[in-house]
């Protein structure tokens, strides 16, 4: 590639809405351009990185025996109704109508469509196991799109779906994908960790997330440096580990047979469940002072437990009494009406209170939540940190050491789904005895575009991005000094350019005629990992200057040895 025929557009300053370093650097390096909230154009330099990420994923998926296809972006509502997700998914699922008034989903993921493909195409156990994948645009109407490509609304995902005849087969397919993911993230050159995860709303039996380790990550990861134990915070908490875990039982155990926990809590509190919002009134008594909280929950989420026992001074956290509800909120069953109370309102969208920081800032969606119910992230986050049932230094559940906590960015997720989708959609195969049985399914996602943000969060300095070689937009940049003035330089640049290309190196020549300072600054910002400077002075001594993106100084390399040196 020649820079004069490519498109490079760098900025000195990042736009003010770019909060984290990867977003700032991608904007400054001209890799993405914002079109709307969570919607970006992938500019040529950024697209090169995306293509490299996709290339590695594709190679390893194919090597692991998965088969590529491509499913539509726009999917009929009927399929989503079959599994119940049309109703369950809430506003994150983008819905559109065609000219005939028929409804469609813009896919956030494709379990329904692949299960539909498979139920009509697969007939016999002889065709199993099979694993289909695609690399496709996704749309999720995220409550709070942010951090550039990290949490976009439109983004690219690789999603794969395995089908097996029995549970053992599904577990083997899962392991194959787990291993492929480990290879993929190793090839990206990123520091990552696989952690056990909750299955969440998707249902099923087993799940792991792959996280790129970065201090700016949204997720807390719990692991034991002396053993294999690793789980995300929610999964670790679900194990009720932590030295204080046993002593501090959740305040309310609300498992009532046949009822969701929210229904049971509502019954306990004698309040009606509203269509979109469930609520729970809580009272904290401390040193004679009472504080009231109203927890609002999205109706499609389930509150597992109320874990508040670790908040200093909040020992007397309990459900509000009817009298308190009446006093604070007005009438008892009607307190879900317009909120004009003296109580702070905590809004919880996720399944556990420990996740509430996620939700608080975005809680006031029109026509979905009550307005004016924002407690604020600054108040919530320290409290949420304290709410955790697992802290550094707790004993590891395997007894092999103590736990450490680090932050990560979720870049991949593998699930054992079992028969949840195949049963809902009637996807069966004929087993060896000719009897129909539901397919055992797994699903496996990688956030292709999120990888860019995650890689930068892990690899940058004050000059810009430092791409790992395997996913860099270009592996090497040739920077000629005074190419227009010196025939010697010009000749050597052309020769080296041809030799490096022949050696399979993804090289760009900066023939834009910029001054050295501006030229170097651009490539340091863009994050090309290797640079070779070609100047007349060095050439007269038979040398070129090599500098790795992380090196403090350049190294002189004899002209004839440069290609071998780079390889
Ligand atoms: P998150 O917890 O960050 O919202 P998720 O658990 O909802 O992610 P999955 O349904 O597991 O996401 O999707 C598979 C992968 O897709 C994730 O591991 C992540 O890398 C990526 N991904 C999910 N949502 C987004 C998004 N809004 N923007 C970019 N990538 C995303
Ligand atoms: Mg999500
Ligand atoms: Mg997640
Ligand atoms: Mg996930």
TrEMBL record:
Molecular function via GO: aminoacyl-tRNA deacylase activity; ATP binding; proline-tRNA ligase activity
Domain Aminoacyl-transfer RNA synthetases class-II family profile residue range list: 33-468
Origin: domain of life: Bacteria
Cellular component GO terms, alphabetical: cytosol
Compartment annotation: Cytoplasm
Complex and partners: Homodimer.
Function summary: Catalyzes the attachment of proline to tRNA(Pro) in a two-step reaction: proline is first activated by ATP to form Pro-AMP and then transferred to the acceptor end of tRNA(Pro). As ProRS can inadvertently accommodate and process non-cognate amino acids such as alanine and cysteine, to avoid such errors it has two additional distinct editing activities against alanine. One activity is designated as 'pretransfer' editing and involves the tRNA(Pro)-independent hydrolysis of activated Ala-AMP.
NCBIfam families: PRK09194.1, proS_fam_II
Family (UniProt): Belongs to the class-II aminoacyl-tRNA synthetase family. ProS type 1 subfamily.
Protein name: Proline--tRNA ligase
Name of the gene: proS
